[in-house]
Amino acid sequence: MTSPSELPPPRPVLRVLSELLLIAVTIPGLFWLGYGVVDGFAIGFTVFLVLLTAAVEYLPALTERIAAQQAADGGVARPARWFDILGVGWLLAIPFAPLLGWITRSAIDLDRSNWHWWLGLSALLCVVVPLVCVLPLLRYVRRGSAGIALAILAVGTGFPVATRAGGIGL
To answer: Full-prediction pTM beyond 0.85?
Structure first.
């Protein structure tokens, strides 16, 4: 683990916010230019990129701060368990579940005989997988960072679900 003195100096907040805003405007604009529509997948992918950029910017310093607090409190980090791999599934489900749903929808012709198979696959990929995979991550929500952690989990889980909410009758 690196010490706080080894971390690069933080960049100005205004610059980081301007980069996040640039991503938030550019990606839907590219979808609109390329496909003529900004749908749920475009929004979900944009939010994923914004969250990923914010995480790369702020997580190293946050990790060091939390580690220092744990060391000062004499706390021990929680051991990893087998179901923690679901957190990786959750992170991958944010952009790729809607993408896979979109690909499968584009690859087949819907008719009366197969619509329920596509609907079931779409609900599994975009609703069940994110909701199940987020559950083990809730144990990492702590007092000091509960607000931002819950917001990230809610937004990250909400976008794949939102891309298919209209298609499953929610």
So the answer is: no
Structural domain containing residue 55: 10-165
pLDDT for 21: 94
Tell me the C-alpha distance between 147 and 36, whole Å.
36
CA 128 to CA 29: how far, in whole Å? 29
In a domain, 3, yes or no: no
Residue 5 domain flag = no
Rounded to the nearest 10°, the torsion over CA 115, 128, 87, 78 is -170
Helices (H) and strands (E) in the chain, counts: 6, 0
Q: Which residue has the higher pLDDT, 94 or 10?
A: 94
Residue 95 lies in a domain: yes
Q: Stretch 49-56: mean pLDDT, rounded?
A: 82
| Radius of gyration, CA atoms only, the chain | 19
Query: What is the total count of domains within the chain?
Result: 1
* Domain assignment of residue 1, yes or no: no
**pLDDT at 170 (0 to 100):** 40
**If you count them, how many residues does the chain have?**
170
Percent residues over pLDDT 70 in the chain: 84
